[in-house]
Amino acid sequence: MDKHLRTKQIKNNPILTSSSEEVSSLEWQAVNMNQEEEDLVCRMHKLVGDRWELIAGRIPGRTAEEIERFWIMKNN
């Protein structure tokens, strides 16, 4: 993969970074969820793990990226 293209992809989607790269939480905006959504994310994560697409499919209007960002920011 072209190095420039990879850098561009990483900047556009910080979740796609490799494990050797660190992403500042300042690049992310906080995801506000109501208590019902938080409970559902926690319960679903216990059942299916890091399958963000599957979890997001259960919460109307939420993307997998939002769910993952919420989870990372909440659990760090």
UniProtKB/TrEMBL annotation:
Domain (HTH myb-type): residue spans on this chain: 35-76
A Pfam family matched in the record: Myb_DNA-binding
Record bears the keyword Membrane: no
SUPFAM superfamilies the record matches: Homeodomain-like (SSF46689)
Keywords of this entry: Developmental protein, DNA-binding, Nucleus, Transcription, Transcription regulation
Stored InterPro entries: Homeodomain-like_sf, Myb_dom, Myb_TF_plants, SANT/Myb
UniProt GO MF annotations: DNA binding
Main location: nucleus
GO process annotations (BP): anatomical structure morphogenesis; cell differentiation; plant epidermis development; system development
Gene3D superfamilies, A to Z: Homeodomain-like
GO CC annotations on file: nucleus
UniProt keyword DNA-binding, yes or no: yes
Subcellular location: Nucleus
UniProt xrefs under PANTHER family: MYB-LIKE TRANSCRIPTION FACTOR ETC3, TRANSCRIPTION FACTOR MYB51-LIKE ISOFORM X1
Protein name, per record: HTH myb-type domain-containing protein
Originating organism: Eruca vesicaria subsp. sativa (Garden rocket)
